[in-house]
Amino acid sequence: MGAVFLAVFSWGDDGQVLAKGPANPGHGALECADCHDSAPGTVRQQVQAAVAFGLGLRETAPAIGRLPVTNRICLDCHEREEDHHPTHVFTQPKYADEREEIAAHLCITCHREHSGRHVENTGQFCATCHSGMEVREDRTTPTHAALAAEERWDTCLRCHDFHGNHHHEWPESLEEAFGGREVLRHLDSGTPMYGEKREPARTSRDR
Ligand code: HEC
Ligand code: HEC
Ligand code: HEC
Ligand code: HEC
Ligand code: HEC
Predict the structure, then answer these.
(1) Is the pTM of this model over 0.85?
(2) 206 assigned to some structural domain
């Protein structure tokens, strides 16, 4: 029989020392426990369960220490009535190919925590799902068809916010749009850009 290896994750009170990196913009005042739920049972029970799993006496590996940070945890504070891109939509089988390119069904694809960044990428992933877009009676200059043909995916966030959670009118020409650098700064540091939010975040997961 092979040896049973256990990695017990220990979390002291001096959380910041153990954190992987700086809090993301807006999260500085959160407690570790706001996102990291303890696994059920004491550490001793979890270790016993892990040993049982290692010996084949248990079918599933138990969570040791802390549970994974799921969308649900984020949504407890960030659920919004009218998200233009709700994560649950992209769990559907028809988005399997898109998920390979950008896992838009997971918050932490674009908002990896402990990075100090607002958004992890440059926001040009719109191409994955909108390359064939058709906007009827398009009033925008250049038109969406022209932007897609020229692969100008750097322009999308200059007019649109991704979640549609701002009182923000989409401009009709690139001249009135935000600058490309402003978008990159926003994605990096979270500097406010699109204006007032429709629904601010909750500060606690208790409802
Ligand atoms: C806003 C939610 C949030 C808060 C608050 C938060 N974390 Fe995290 N943490 C995450 C997410 C999400 C991950 C998963 C890895 C990733 O996305 O980078 C993670 C991963 C970790 C990991 C690595 C665990 C692993 O399995 O890789 C450690 C250690 C950690 N966090 C410690 C802390 C500590 C200590 C605090 C408090 C100072 C804290 N975190 C606060 C969301 C959070
Ligand atoms: C306990 C509540 C809570 C949890 C859990 C939480 N957040 Fe937040 N988050 C906040 C608050 C409060 C802010 C501050 C900005 C605001 O009020 O909108 C914030 C800010 C943000 C911002 C930046 C918003 C901005 O205006 O620049 C992003 C992105 C974000 N959270 C994503 C996440 C993700 C992804 C998770 C899960 C890994 C998560 N949050 C978990 C409360 C929470
Ligand atoms: C495919 C990438 C992507 C995914 C997945 C994603 N976001 Fe975002 N998110 C962005 C981008 C880009 C922005 C900046 C533009 C904007 O403000 O809408 C943003 C902005 C935000 C903001 C600040 C604006 C606001 O709406 O208050 C919050 C909070 C946020 N995201 C939370 C989440 C949560 C929670 C999830 C999962 C349920 C999630 N995001 C999933 C790309 C993503
Ligand atoms: C994983 C696939 C996916 C990605 C990536 C994606 N979208 Fe979407 N988007 C959708 C779907 C699905 C809809 C809903 C379409 C519908 O209602 O017919 C949508 C709707 C929209 C809408 C219309 C919202 C409304 O309700 O009027 C805009 C604007 C938009 N997306 C912009 C963007 C931008 C900008 C990006 C990149 C930052 C992006 N999308 C990335 C799938 C995606
Ligand atoms: C100059 C500003 C601007 C730019 C750049 C822009 N859009 Fe738009 N977009 C708009 C406006 C305005 C509308 C509303 C169109 C209308 O109703 O005539 C719109 C509508 C949309 C819609 C909804 C279409 C529908 O059927 O309602 C989607 C999806 C969309 N844009 C995606 C994108 C993507 C992806 C990009 C990046 C290539 C992009 N947009 C670039 C301004 C812009």
Answers:
(1) yes
(2) no
